[in-house]
Amino acid sequence: MRTLPLCLALAVATPTPPATGQVRTGADVLAATDCEALAGCRVGLITNHTGRTSDGRRTVDVLATAEGMELVALFSPEHGWHGVLDEKVGDSIDRATGLVVHSLYGATRKPTAKMLRGIDTLVFDVQDIGCRFYTYIATMRNAMEAAAEHGLRFVVLDRPNPIGGVAIAGPVLARERRDFVGAHTIPLRHGMTTGELARMMAGEDAIKVRIEVVRCEGWHRRDLWHRTGLRWINPSPNMRRLTQALTYPGIGLIEGTNVSVGRGTDTPFEILGAPWIDGERLARDLNGRELPGVAFVPVRFTPTASKHAGEECGGVHVLLTDWRTFEPVRTGVHVACALHRLFGDDWDTRRLDWLLKDEASAARILRGDPADAILASWRDGLRTFRMRRRAFLLYE
Predict the structure, then answer these.
(1) Radius of gyration (Cα) for the chain, nearest Å?
(2) Three-state DSSP state, 319
(3) Phi, psi at 68, each rounded to 5°
(4) Which residues contact residue 134 at a Cβ distance below 8 angstroms, ignoring those fewer than 6 apart?
(5) Partner of 51 for a Cys bridge, out of 40, 59, 72, 238, CB 3.0 to 4.6 A?
(6) What is the pLDDT of residues 230-278, one digit of tens each?
(7) For residues 336 and 349, what is the distance between their CA atoms, to the nearest angstrom?
(8) pTM (predicted TM-score)
(9) Domain 242-357 has CATH 2.60.120.970
(10) Residue pair 348/320 in contact by the 8 Å Cβ criterion
């Protein structure tokens, strides 16, 4: 059986100009060789609707029609095979291939021995968005652990990080806080691709599995999605454009509280509000903080689903004015501090720490500490993380 070489680490309203070249994803690179790296393998593919080549072919179809290998089973993460569900998902059948799609967001979140029967190689091809609490990387980790337990190869078809690979932000997760919305000891905005994260998870936590990454070609760490030349496919139902991926690591932080973050509207993660919020007052406070790359416009909206469904909410539109300077996590912390200062009696903060996962920082928000002082407390952890990740990076 031929194997892939182990990959070695290499020693905005005003977006930057588009790149001149077309990025090729790991799926593109694999397809160009007729899946030669999987020759002789019996493959289980973990993917969803984002698993496509740049010319629009599904990765599942590329593998199903490749010669010299056999596609045995399929697996889907949260939101299901077609990426449209916001609930637990059952198993299904892929009509084109007739293969069972085993849900990893239903009865189990980790491939079982029964699901893996007849497979010798697991392939992961799912588009992530670069935020720690986006669950696709947790599904990848669970599958890596299952591969290690059953002696399987694990191949990642890498894809660009839509919000770039340079900026990092947020508290670094403590090992004891790991869960499905915190798969590894990384900050909220980690600046890594799925392939790089797989290498880091296996390397730092001694997951006994050979990680092989089919690298992207033409992607650079400084590039956001708009510079890749690749078509945007909504990774999940409420992640509909790059601006939402950019705001998500910050605005998503308050989702555990009784504030709508725009689910059930046309602009999730670009608006936030609640029936008890005075949008003009909140916008005035936030604009007075002069945060880079963002402005806040008072709005009223009525979500059709999720928090405050059917209730008119006051709030703000988070308007990105410069993608290059916008800092999503800093913005999210400032929003939280403003909500506490202005509407503390109505804001239910019992689950404020659900996605932040840093009790000390959550306590400081509720104590009324300055937002930038809270961010400053993360500097040492981020400095250490930047050094830790060097050995696992694949792109310059």
Answers:
(1) 21
(2) strand
(3) 85, 5
(4) 128, 235, 236, 248
(5) 59
(6) 999 999 999 999 999 999 999 999 999 999 999 999 999 999 999 999 9
(7) 10
(8) 0.94
(9) no
(10) no
C-beta of residue 218 within 8 angstroms of C-beta of residue 201: no
Contact (Cβ atoms closer than 8 angstroms) between residue 136 and residue 110: no
Q: What's phi and psi for 156, nearest 5 deg?
A: -105, 125
Q: Which tokens in the block code for residue 126? A: 């799912």
Dist. CA 198–CA 213, nearest whole Å: 9
Q: Mutual orientation of helices 242-251 and 328-343 as an angle, nearest 10°?
A: 50
Asked if 169 and 328 touch (Cβ cutoff 8 Å), the reply is: yes
Confidence band (pLDDT; 50, 70, 90) for 21? Answer: low
Backbone angles phi, psi at 309, to 5 degrees: -55, 130
Dihedral over alpha carbons 85, 89, 90, 96 (to 10 degrees) = 40
The CATH homologous superfamily to which domain 26-234+386-392 belongs is Uncharacterised protein PF07075, DUF1343 (3.40.50.12170)
Give residue limits of the domains in the chain. Answer: 26-234+386-392, 242-357
Cβ atoms of 120 and 152 within 8 Å: the answer is: yes
Q: How many CB atoms lie within 10 A of CB 148?
A: 16
The encoded tokens of residue 55 equal 């010319």
Instruction: Report the candidate in 173, 176, 204, 203 with the shortest Cα–Cα distance to residue 188.
Output: 173
